[in-house]
Amino acid sequence: MVRENTLSADDLIGPVFVNETLSAPSEVRSMPGVIAHTPASVVDEARRLEALNVPAVLLFGVPERKDKSGSQAWDRNSVVQGAVRDIKGATDLTVITDLCLCEYTSHGHCGVLRDGSVDNDLTLELYARTAVAQAQAGADIVAPSGMMDGQVMAVRDALDDAGFENVAIMAYAAKYASAFYGPFRDAAHSAPSSGDRRTHQMDLANAREAMREMRADLAEGADVLMVKPALPCLDIIALARRNLDVPLAAYQVSGEYAMLKAAAANGWLDGKASMMESLLSIKRAGADMIITYFAAEAAEVLRGIE
Ligand code: PBG
Which of 93, 253, 278, 285 is deepest in the core (most CB within 10 A)? Predict the structure, then answer.
């Protein structure tokens, strides 16, 4: 009766990888328990999450063909668009698509390059095309994650022009340049081949800037704001919760998952207890929803409690 915060499967969003280069589902080396799926097996993963009462998935596609502009991102027959159609056809899940180019470009950057660095405005046009392709495939929510300035407005305008007024935007609004994304880049084959993402992702030292980024995304039309990573940014989640009256998502990223799993595998931490503690602390900080690689595992624990 006196517990101030609770965790429920309803709060969780499961990230799902669909990889066109795989002939069979395969575990991500640095993320024990996380499976990269083939276009055929991804629907089983979605069904499994739905059966556990997880309401939504966040989809990441890894295409076979990559090029300089990342054109598979907006190809209507690309691996991720196919997975959206299949999952929407087979489940009632809310499907959220990560909207970035880093999994699709041959150089691994989140946008197109000009003179060796990411060109913000040229990239916006490609995000706009990608958003429409994802919506056409059936995505309920698109999640622009590249941290280009103006990306939410570009995506909102493109969706509206194409008749997708009801497709929502979950903005990776306060996304820091974090070391905790390492294992994800293994899974999504998206590490930049040179340089880093510090020209567009945020400096971990900054909190006021996070508020500015979030307010800008709201003004541009974001429906849900995301803070990423989660545990290193609990203060940012709390700050956003106090100052903004919109749904807030927190992304417990690949490295946060990997470190808990590694410690648990060594017997240094109680895996289940530390998983639930980390998720509840993100909830307490103020997140309404948590994107987490623990979604299925935590939902199983929660099913036992409920
Ligand atoms: C794409 C993207 C990344 C993550 C989510 N979307 C990688 C990055 O910014 O390098 C990271 C997620 C994770 O670590 O779990 N831009």
Answer: 253
